[in-house]
């Protein structure tokens, strides 16, 4: 009888330990997910603000170039060509860009926060 109670107690302890490990894994997962979402939202906000700043800078540059060239449409055409050149460069260096982004997100996901 005593042996059966000891075995049952050991099984109950093992179940409790397993449940504790599952809870720990769940908490770590929630912490990692919250960290990733926080960083993504922070970077999204930075990106939006940067795009706004670049837009105003581009508008001012287009007006300045237009006044220098005495043709506002030509100034806007030159400034408008800059994003197309950036896209062209990204297409040329596609593999390196993708690898850099993959490394960045992998580093975020595997970083230890303990």
Automatic annotation (TrEMBL):
Annotated TM spans: 48-66, 72-93
This protein's name: Competence protein
Organism for this UniProt entry: Brumimicrobium salinarum
Keywords, ordered alphabetically: Membrane, Transmembrane, Transmembrane helix
UniProt keyword annotation of Transmembrane present: yes
